[in-house]
Amino acid sequence: MQPYKPEKVFVERAVAESVITRNVLGNLPMAQVEWIDEAGQMVDKSRRWNPSIARAKQSLVLARHPGRFFKPCPAGTTKTGRRNVCCNYFVVNFASNCHMECSYCYLQAYLNLPYMVVHANVEDLLDELGQVFSSNPRSHYRVGTGELADSLALDSLTGYSRPLVEFFAGFTNAALEFKTKSNCVENLLQLDHRGRTVVSWSINPPTVVQAEEHKTASFEQRLAAAEKCSAAGYPIVFHFDPLIHYPEWEKDYRSLVEEIFQRIPPRSVPWVSLGALRMPPRLKALVRERFPRSGLPLGELLPTEDGKLRYFKPIRVEMLSKMRAWITAASPQTRIYSCMENTDVWQKVFQSQQPPSEVELGDSLLQLL
Amino acid sequence: MALHPYDPVAGAALRNVPLAEVDSKDRSLALSRPWQLRPSLLASIASHGILTPLRLRPKQNGLMQVVHGFRRFEAARRLGLPSIPGLVLASRNLLKLFLQALEEGRTARTLSSLENAAALRTLKYRFNVPEKRLIEEFLPLLDLKENRRTLRLHLDLAVLPDALQQALERGLENETALRLSGRPEDFQSLCCRLILSFQLGKNRQKKLVEMLDEILAAASKQEVQSVEEVWRELGCAALENRADLTPADRWKRILALLRQARYPALSRHQARFDELKAALKLPPPVRLQAPRYFEGSSLEISMTVREARQLDGLARELKRISGSQEWEELFRLL
Question: Closest Cα of chain A to B316: distance in Å?
Fold first, then answer.
């Protein structure tokens, strides 16, 4: 993975004393630092400056998150009001934006603030989670940090993983998921996680990583990092998402699945998810502009009921079904679910009358830990 | 000697200026391009001469610079007139002269998008007028929306290649022109030809450019082919010239070929659906519809009836064919 080295760090005075701020500034002794009163002023600055996406990412903003950190994952709700089959996931946005450059990344067309932002008020985050988990002890929570940022890509700078892992180790009704395309796992290896933190990788065959997932850890680096985490006792999860359709996809994805389960003990992998490439229409134009050599926008992507472009239905049913069969053959005990798909496709892929409810699916995954 | 009674600039003089004394290369204040000369203006000047004097100003090199009246000057040049009537302005404040010319132009007629674009570009880059002032003062003056996006659009239009600017005057949409501007010339040329000959509206222009662009990008990944080669291989070139079809039919068939090339799996699926539907021989009042792009698990069947007896007959007919193999396969397509 190409490490992140911002040219400039903007620090909101409100987080001057945060351990995260201390970690970042300590790890970036050469970076230019500017203290700011309020991170909101950066929005105006970006509008005036109007930097390219890549240029803006060279600035890191350490700010206080003023609102709630803890939210239901928005994957199930869609712009058109249609519900996709969902897994009762929750997200905590400890940061927003990602310095890696996956051609298909939806953040390109989603974020208002183009800079890299880390919300350094980790104490507020933990207080909020503690209140949620303690006040609903019978409810179960799978919480991820990888919605608006890669969970671990900046961890060598921020050290955010330590307080989070140690916090979740104290709860039996909640689990934390780090979702990453990096190999930044060194901070995790000595922590007392008590099996309440899952480390997951979004993964694709090496050819796709090389062509579409720029600046990320290579397939080999990701798998080596997963081996380390597995050896440290962490449950390991793989998100085969986004699945990319191209002429050799069957051979490549089948090898991918086989290699993963040859190197990671199947008992360490409680679940995996599947999802075919999808994107809002405006992202397709942006990918064409920013990544003219990418073949992704040239796939057979068509508008679907939730407003997103997806592969033509028979293509994604075939991809998801075959992946399911290969994974089941390699690791029969690993639970498989599909992310952001509609009931119709779910039924075809899982050959079921009705998909499970959100809570059923979420709880069944958590019970595997 | 000031001869023009309404001229706001002191020291202006009305003169007959020999054409050779005008700097024909200096178009720095022009709003129009030479090709924008209308045949009617050329004919009028050929018959009656130039009725309204041009605005000119003396340059340091001894020649005259045209401030306003570039089309009249172009007509005079093409007609080989020896001289033109010109109001020679003494002012050295070029911005003021340009603004007067702009005012005269915009109040006399509606300026085209390209003329607005040229005016804004001249103000920004020649006279360094700040963007804020351009947005707040000049966009409303030109009857344009007062926002940065509109300004950006017009500044970009002003530097489009001539071929695209000419197509703009004939029906190419602004957004399409800008999208084409970054593409190779042969691609621009094919798209403009199709858009203008089939008189495509905004949405169709957008769709055509997007599909062609993606088809060509996919083709170029396999081997480098020229745009026209791909066009021929798709079978579109032959259709484009079919004199026995109406333009609407030609366009419909071209579009079908493009869809087939861009979405092969969907096209095969749709073709099989159409075959099966035809094989069912549904009674004419019954319509069978697949969900859009086959996203969904149900077929829609609708019918129009006028009386109960007709409904009864259609119901019996539908029941009779409901067990056919075609139905089974139609549902499997979903």
Answer: 31
- Which residues, in sequence order, are bridge partners of residue A266? none
| Among the listed residues B22, B115, B33, B30, the one whose alpha carbon sits nearest the alpha carbon of residue B76 | B22
Helix (H/G/I), strand (E/B), else coil: A66: coil
Least confident of B59-73, B104-118, B123-137, B217-231: B217-231
CATH of the domain at A151: 3.80.30
Which positions in chain B touch A295 (Cβ < 8 Å)?
218, 221
DSSP code for A341 = B
Which among A31, A6, A11, A35 has a CA at the least distance from the CA of A21? Answer: A11
Q: Is A202 helix (H, G, I), strand (E, B) or coil?
A: strand
A173-204 pLDDT, tens digit each: 999 999 999 999 999 999 999 999 999 999 99
Query: B51: exposed, middle or buried (C-beta count within 10 Å: 0-12, 13-18, 19+)?
Result: exposed
Burial class, B75, CB count within 10 angstroms (exposed 0-12 / middle 13-18 / buried 19+): buried
Residue to test with chain A: of B293, B299, B329, B333, most A Cβ within 10 A:
B293
Domain count, chain A: 1
Print burial letters for A205-233: b (CB count within 10 Å at least 16), e (below 16).
Answer: beebbebbbebbbebeebbebbbbbbeee
What confidence tens digit (pLDDT) does each residue in A44-100 have? 777 666 678 888 889 999 999 998 999 988 876 666 666 787 888 899 999 999 999
Task: Please state the separation of Cα A163 from the chain's center in Å.
Answer: 19
SS3 readout for B82-143? CEEEEEECCCCCHHHHHHHHHHHHHHHCCCCHHHHHHHHHHHHHHCCCCHHHHHHHHHHHCC
Residue B9 has pLDDT above 80, yes or no: no
Which among A341, A342, A336, A339 has a CA at the least distance from the CA of A323?
A: A336
Residue A117 lies in a domain: yes
| Position A290 pLDDT exceeds 70 | yes
- The minimal CB distance from B263 to the residues A300, A305, A313 is found for A300
- What does the alpha-carbon distance between residue A25 and residue A33 come to, in Å, rounded to a whole number? 8
Distance in angstroms (rounded) separating the CA atoms of residues B95 and B100: 9
- For A221, the domain range is 8-240+250-257+354-366
With CA atoms as reference, report the closest residue to B266 among A104, B222, A250, B258.
Answer: B258
Residue B223 clears pLDDT 90, i.e. is over it: no
CB-count exposure of residue A179 (10 Å: 0-12, 13-18, 19+): buried
How confident is the prediction for chain B on average, in pLDDT? Answer: 90
The residue of A103, A304, A312 whose CB has the most chain B CBs within 10 angstroms, and thus the best one to mutate to test that interface, is A312
CB contact under 8 A, A295 and B221: yes
| pLDDT tens readout for residues A316-366 | 999 999 999 999 999 999 999 998 888 899 999 998 878 888 788 888 888
Chain B contact present for A281, CB below 8 A:
no
Q: What's the CA gap between B247 and B240, in Å, rounded?
A: 9
DSSP letter for A89, please.
Answer: E
Rounded Cα gap, residues A340 and A276, in angstroms = 9
